[in-house]
Amino acid sequence: FFIFDIVSMYTVLLFAFISLSSVGALSLQLEAAGSTLFAPIFGQWTASFDMVSGTKVEYTLTTSQKALSLLSTTDSHIEFGSSVNPLPKGTSDAYPELGLMNFPFVATPVVFIYNLPGSPSPDDVDSDILPIIITRENAIRIFNGNIIKWNDERLVETQDSEAWQEYLRNCNMTIDGWLRSDETGTTEILTSAFSQFDTTWAEEFGVFSSWPAEFYNTRLSFRYADGTIGVLSGVSITPYSIGYVGLSAALSNAYPYVARMDNRAGNIVGTGSENLTPALVNALVDENFVTDITDSPEDQAYPIMGLSYILIQSIQQPRHDCEKRRETWSFFNYVLTKLNSTTATGMGFAPLSPELSHKVMQALAEVSCDGRSLLDIETTESYELYFVLPVAMCIGIIAVLSLAIISFLLVLVLNPKDKRLPVPMSVFGITLFIAAILGYIGIGMWLIVPSSDNVCMARVWLGTIAVSVMLGASISRASQIKRLNEALHSIAKMEDMIQQKVWWAFLDLGVIVCVQLMILVIWQSVDPFRSVIVVSDDINLVGYYQCASDSLGMWGAEIGFLAIIVIYGMIEIYQAWNLPSQTNQSKWILFSLYNVILTAAVCLPIISLVEDETDVAIVAIVGLIFLFFQMQISFMIPSFYSGIYRSTKSGSSGGSTKGTGKSTTKRSQAKESSFDTGRS
Predict the structure, then answer these.
(1) Each residue of 32-85: pLDDT tens digit?
(2) Which tens digits make up the pLDDT trace of 168-195?
(3) Which residue pairs from 49-54 have beta carbons closer than 8 angstroms and sit at least 24 positions apart in sequence?
């Protein structure tokens, strides 16, 4: 039967879990726009975010300048933009009502790609062959027109393999150059690096984002190309050509011919992860997250790199939907804390250092919508039990009240002339009823979000006290049955019980409740139950309030105390087991303790394993309702029998008692008094 009952309770709990399973949230759609350079990484990031959050991010391919233009109006339809470079100086001051803000999310390496037919290839069988070396000096010479042919000795002598030296000496071909025709951050990163590599370039040309027209006119064999894909396509179809693109474009299009360079430390470096991350390790940014990581002094750092930025409006606009804004910030959080370090390098970008990511998140936390930080944890306002919990509580309370009323009416019907307090409404009945009401109030605390420590305290105190009172009342009833039986065989003990009335019946109950209160007071002083926020979804920044107590010792003390009560009750029941049936309710009390053990055997393991507050609530409520209801039944049923027994006894012996002697009458009155004491 024990196994059958456990399976039954697990079935009830399983049904509760299924019926209370949460409905998935409606998906949102965010709009963004930015540089085509970030198309590969945003494609992966947005797909991943959609998978884990259900929110789609539509990233429109355009230019950094166009993204800034879209964000420079109060009715912009995009949530954020991306740019290879930070906001131009003075942009934020020009639009003070928007609060335009930028923050870095990756660093972008700009590389030279080439097309040299018949050249030594890294894909050849000879694994020692590496890509061509384009030193910083030679790169500037190519782009300013000082080196116009591939067999220029300055290119030949910088190669570190005989195969490349031999190839270049025999390559008497003009260098065809591909430049971006549009305004782009990639060009700005390149020319910024050139300006640091060479003072002459800095003085003559400086840093720019679009090539001047006169620059094209004075250079032979240089061609225009629109966008990253234009340059990549132009180089791939033009023999003996060179161009520059973001590394991510070369990788995403599987273009293998990417040149190596020398860095400030004089080392020849490629574009592996070990070369992309060093520049960001010690990068110092200003209050606007602007810094120059080009030509880093780190030994293995790739030299042509620049931070790339996300652009946002930090001041809330009338068009802003706070739900969308929160989801946008969740996307930023997901990108910077989950994906950046694991996906950026493999896609041709350098991830931010942990320190820089932390600074960015701190700045984003200061942005608010409707007066609330967009990075605050969104706590659930209820446990999605709006319908089931109140219904369950009402059913339980109605059942308890119905049992009490029905028992009261049955006894009145069975004993219409009995003017004494009916058995179900006696002291123990009232005690159990009050304990059940306390328990249901404690269950009601689960309907209140535990955003306050007081709610957590009420849950624990009301629940444990209710259980202790019910157990104590049942055990006191068993002790009373045993003492009553002893009194029936001794006039002295019977008279002593009558004089003491019912106070001794509360001895066990009083001790149990006092010990329980002492445990709770100690628990409150050592490690009180407190309200904490548990992050259930660190991607969407969703969490819930939970009552927590870390003191395993106090948990053990409480469980041990309840176990001792159950064991003591079973001893009392054992001693009263064979007493007269008309006064013996030990079998029903054993039934109560059995259900306590059953409830603990089912609920405690589940509560210790589940982490979600909703699941804990379901288990606790089902268990407590079951426990309170069956303990009321275990008192009411023997009360029915007691009333029936008294009615039957009264009917069968009503006429015969008139002729009895005085001593018999006193003895009967004493027995009735003792029965009254026992019932109460």
Answers:
(1) 998 888 888 888 899 888 888 888 999 998 888 888 888 988 888 899 999 888
(2) 999 999 999 999 988 888 899 999 999 9
(3) 49/331, 49/334, 49/335, 49/539, 52/334, 52/539, 53/327, 53/330, 53/334, 53/539, 53/540, 54/24, 54/25, 54/27, 54/28
**What residues are paired with 179 via a beta bridge?**
224
- Among the listed residues 133, 128, 126, the one whose alpha carbon sits nearest the alpha carbon of residue 150: 133
Q: Which residue has the higher pLDDT, 666 or 148?
A: 148
Q: Give the contacts of 348 (CB within 8 A, at least 6 positions apart).
A: 40, 41, 109, 246, 247, 248, 249, 250, 251, 252, 271
- Cα→Cα distances 210→177, 185, 680, Å: 15, 9, 97
Q: Which range is most confident: 122-126, 349-353, 531-535, 550-554?
A: 349-353
DSSP 496-558: HHHHHTTGGGGHHHHHHHHHHHHHHHHHHHHS--EEEEEEEETTTTEEEEEEE---HHHHHHH
Distances (CA, A) of 118 to 121, 168, 254, 256: 8, 11, 19, 14
Q: Which helix (H) or strand (E) holds 668?
A: helix 662-679
* Percentage above 90 pLDDT, the chain: 20
Q: For residues 186 and 323, what is the distance between their CA atoms, to the nearest angstrom?
A: 34
> Given the DSSP bridges, would you call strands 100-115 and 350-351 parallel, antiparallel or unpaired?
antiparallel
Distance CA 196, CA 279 (A): 15
pTM of the model: 0.58
Name the DSSP class of 26: P
Containing 657, the helix (H) or strand (E) segment is: none
How many Å separate Cα 156 from the centre of its chain? 58
Tokens representing residue 164 in the block: 């490349």
Tokens of 486: 């002893």
